Amino acid sequence: MKTRVIQVDPQQPSASALADAADVLSRRGLVAFATETVYGLGALATDPAAVDRIYHAKGRPPFNPLIVHVEGITQARQFTAVWPKAADRLAGTFWPGPLTLVLNRSSLIPDIVTGGRETVALRVPLPPVARGLIERVGQPLAAPSANRSNRLSPTRAEHVLSDLDGRIDLILDSGPTSFGLESTVLDLTGSPLRILRPGPIGPEEIAQCLGGLDQVASTREDVAGPPGELPASPGMLNVHYAPRTPALRVDAIEDLAKISWPEKPALLVLGPAALPDLPDALHLVELPEPEAAGQRLYSILHECDALYLDVIIIVMPPDQPEWRTIRDRLVRAARPVAG
After folding, report:
1. Which structural domain range is residue 98 located in?
2. In DSSP terms, which residues pair with 283 in a beta bridge?
3. Which candidate among 4, 10, 57, 200 keeps its CA 20 to 30 Å from the CA of 170?
4. pLDDT in tens, 246-295
5. Strand 99-104 relative to strand 119-123: parallel, antiparallel, unpaired?
């Protein structure tokens, strides 16, 4: 298979490009497209054979559920068994946008989409390309990140092509994504409501929206299930979001003294820090501000992979709310340096 790439305007995608992509999808093909978070790999969510191609292209384990991207609240309700008051408030406030809601599914959602669970993860993407494609095809799209399983999420079309060339049909290239990190995933099926994956929308914003309607649990400890339990959401596996280059993490600049530097290392420093003397051959990247760090994190790690470095050393950002999502991704992407 030859993977085609079509350049599209991010704000005004051409009707011909969307029609081309919709035709691919209608024939059970796979189309990568930009959301506001990362590039997604789309297939018709109601067609098990099409969804199965996502799992094969990514090498994704079949128990790991997919997020379903819908046109709006009306379409979302069609694919849920129960639509609670909290869903109305949250969707009305944050959709379209980077919030995924986990709800009890209706019979219209195939088992393969949910990884064997009785819940479905739904969201409405923000960009005109993504929404235009869903509208054009007239059906929801199952769309995990457009990369090999457990690898870095793509924030540019070239990242998708590097990872999935020859494995998918089409990429709609609308430039870099705006947030750079995956959506917040919120489980609405129990009490308290649980943030299964931190993202651009934090627990404080969710709680403010709900106005005391429900309590919200937000730490990994709060959502940890019994050993062997199926993941309730994408992005919950302990090893995830990893670059090809070996990655190690330290909690503080002072911990760099523990490092035996190889010949070609990279150092990624997140948060404000005063650096000590470092090796001359070091590839150094500093990201002191959380918003810019979120936008650039995956892109920088992709760049490090392209340099064929020996190791990426990551200095973790402070344990503060504004760094919550980045810390979650780095804990899964990099191993701690032994003390």
Report:
1. 4-223
2. 266
3. 200
4. 999 999 999 999 899 999 999 999 999 999 999 888 999 999 999 999 99
5. antiparallel
